[in-house]
Amino acid sequence: MMMMAKRVSRVLPWMLAGVERRLCTTVETAAEEVETKEWKPLYRRLSALGKAPKGSVVETLNGWLREGQAITFNELMKDLMDWMEKRSMMFNEGTHAIRIDLISKVKGVDAAESYFNSLPEVVQSQLTYGALLSIYCQVKMEDKAMSIYEKMKELNLTSKTLVHNNLLALYSKLGQPEKVISLFQEMKSMNLSPDNYTYSILINNYASLNDLNTVEKLMHELEEGHKDVLDWTIFSNLASLYLSAGFPDKTELALKKLEEIRNKRDRMPYHHLISLYASIGNLAEVNRVWKLLKSSFEKTTNMSYLVMFQALSKLDDVDALNQCFQEWESARLSYDIRIVNVVIGTYLVKGMIKEAEFLWEQAKQKGAGSDFRTFNHFIDYYLKHDISSALKCLETATDLVKHDEWKPKQETVTAFLKYIEETKDVDSAQAVYKCLKKLNCIFEIVRVETKARDSDCIFETFQRN
Asked: Its domain of life (predicted)?
């Protein structure tokens, strides 16, 4: 850390030296003028439709997208519920509970609390209290979660397994396995029936205590007397635990159990099987499950292909990866950049730069473009082989960023700083500084790379320049 602090202290001041001169000579392209007086938010546009034909809603949403605006499921659902409320449509307890959850995701916890507190007592029920408890548990607000749980106990609203599952999940996230086990015992004393989610959390927490003996005893009890709660997710968790503990044979046994009780119309168990078999290096089983998946469903989705590509990459099988890629392209599914990124990443690890660049160019031609993971792959590669190309990638990625959606990885910045320090390359120093400043992360980088007293010195240097 001390070495890095000195490096930043030496490099950053003269990185700044020519920046102002460069910025003064830059000709900025004027932004296209937008008539803001005509612009309306999505909610107002949908509200104005009234009793318009069904197609009008679709046209309105498509128009919103054509303007470059974003639509998220949670925001859309919240707008829909706002619209329903304005038209005095009746909400039941379940609808209020859903709305509390949506408000928390779109506007935050405080807004969800305010909405809950505004509800009449008649709908402040197990569902709405439970929705607020779930939110507190998701964001790890322990004090508020326990406070509302105690209130629910006073009102006799804790008779559902879901209420306790939320608390189990909270303390699991907080890394308190003993508390999870204690709450499970409390559930049993209340004669509540644990479900598969309950047991999955419990198994994971016993495993975090390195108590695999208890995990195995618990699994034996479930197989003997509680088969109704056993589903494939429990065996998937068990396989992952055995894998982490270094027991490949037990991992395979758990995977066989997973396959036996899988839901044959659900793709997820197949995905877990492929991924876990790849993790133990069993290519034959990966291929077998892949064939089984494709024969079980009429269509093989991009997500299934993505899982298979990740497995083949993990297994370091480039030939099989190429063959699978040709199969995917011939399937004529939507051109998914996530899949392309897996292949590009594998090529670059292997030093197959020409193949990776060709694939990137092909993706652009097919309209898939790139995401910032693509840039990360190439920047990482070029930093080791061609610093000028790495810098071009960084500049291109920076120009594409909107709304702080991407920042370079800390190790990427560290590598650039190391190069600049060693070579005293002024042009590269100024270009890197300009990118970091545009990405609004220059001070964040400094804070991570330096100790507090060094940061203060660098902040003063920024101000002087």
From this structure: Eukaryota
Residue 270 falls inside a structural domain: yes
d(CA 394, CA 388): 10
What are the CA-CA distances from residue 381 to residues 293, 351, 366 (Å)? 34, 8, 24
The rounded distance, in Å, linking the Cα atoms of 301 and 331 is: 10
pLDDT in tens, 273-324: 999 999 999 999 999 999 999 999 999 999 999 999 999 999 999 999 999 9
120 within some domain: no
Q: Are 348 and 380 in contact (CB under 8 A)?
A: yes
Residue 308: give its domain's CATH number.
1.25.40
CA distance 318 to 309: 10
Cβ distance 238 to 219 under 8 Å?
yes
Cβ neighbours, 10 Å, residue 385: 11
What is the per-residue pLDDT across 93-128, written as a single tens digit (0 to 9) for each? 888 898 898 888 888 999 999 999 999 888 899 999
Please state the domain count of the chain.
1
Is residue 16 within 8 Å of 433, Cβ to Cβ? yes
Task: Decide if 353 contacts 347 (C-beta within 8 A).
Answer: yes
Dist. CA 457–CA 252, nearest whole Å: 56
Report if residue 256 sits inside a domain.
Answer: yes
